[in-house]
Amino acid sequence: MSKKWYNYFVSVDSVTGEPASGGESGESASGPGAPAPMSAADEIAGLAHSIQPTPAPKFANPVADPASFAQIYEAAEVRVPAHGFTIFKIAEMLKSEHIRSLPVEIKRSSVLLALDAAGVKLQEVIEDAVHRDRALDTFEAVQQRSLDQLEARKADENKQLQAEADRVLNELRAKIQANNDEVTKERERLQGWRFQKQQEERRIFDAVAPFVPENPITTGPAVTPKAESGKVPGN
């Protein structure tokens, strides 16, 4: 989207259809049929439109502080002209307490008179504005490209980290499952051995029983098994 830096200097009186000077309608001072002289507003508008598009500026040096527009302009080699009339100088003039409350036509005329007195062409100021705007737009594009590249790198890095996390998680889950399987297998083995133990103790018990009034042989489990006590959490 183009930015009309010159709009502040362009009057609207040329759009009303009224002649620029006080001559009779349809005729200029030069006689019937002669083209009406261009108003100051038309001349300024034509001047602004005549400025050729400039290529994107090259940043000669890196910008240490992106929040510093002065550094951006310096890196883009946008220099303050010797006469000192930059677009910012014009902005200060427009906000001056002497003219800031006046109509836009008077503001424009006052600035143009000051430029003329200093021997500065309006085109130089407009070009300064365009160059600064181009520097800002270009630096914005540079930052956006840097952000896009960072986002792409981090997305790829996150993808690799997620794959590594999934691999490690699967390995840990497999180890947890193996631990639980090992405990289950040992519990089943012990249960089978206890059954055989009880049978063995019963044989001993039966052989001792005829000779003692109170049988000292135990036939129950020596230790009460803990239900699922050896299961590792996570399965």
From TrEMBL:
<feature type="coiled-coil region">
    <location>
        <begin position="140"/>
        <end position="189"/>
    </location>
</feature>
<protein>
    <submittedName>
        <fullName>Uncharacterized protein</fullName>
    </submittedName>
</protein>
<feature type="region of interest" description="Disordered">
    <location>
        <begin position="212"/>
        <end position="235"/>
    </location>
</feature>
<keyword id="KW-0175">Coiled coil</keyword>
<feature type="compositionally biased region" description="Low complexity">
    <location>
        <begin position="17"/>
        <end position="39"/>
    </location>
</feature>
<feature type="region of interest" description="Disordered">
    <location>
        <begin position="16"/>
        <end position="39"/>
    </location>
</feature>
